[in-house]
Amino acid sequence: MERRYFTSIMKSKEEEIQIIIHHWIRTLNIKLGWIKDFDKFVVDYASTVFMFNTFRSSSKLINIFTGHTKAVWSIDYSTFDDRQFICSGSSDKTVRVWDVDNNKQIQSFNRHSSD
What we know:
Keywords: Repeat, WD repeat. By secondary structure, the chain is an alpha+beta fold. The chain is 23% helix and 46% strand.
């Protein structure tokens, strides 16, 4: 009985987090991406990219990636050689690459075009 109760609590916590995330997406028109085993998520809003821990007693802001001067319209997550990266594209015509483990920007590609 205890195991079922614990599973039910964990499921309801995960559902609560999903509801909050979906609310953010609808009301703030943000984009998001999951990192690793869904233990972190990344959102972009305005010209800033945020990374949060999830599935804990409360979500914790891990890092704020700043550098774009205009709205961030695209965000993606990738791995390469056991390293994790976030790529963000902005109306400022830059694509920025962030190292997730070091929480630093490692590359900026300037003057990209959507054409």
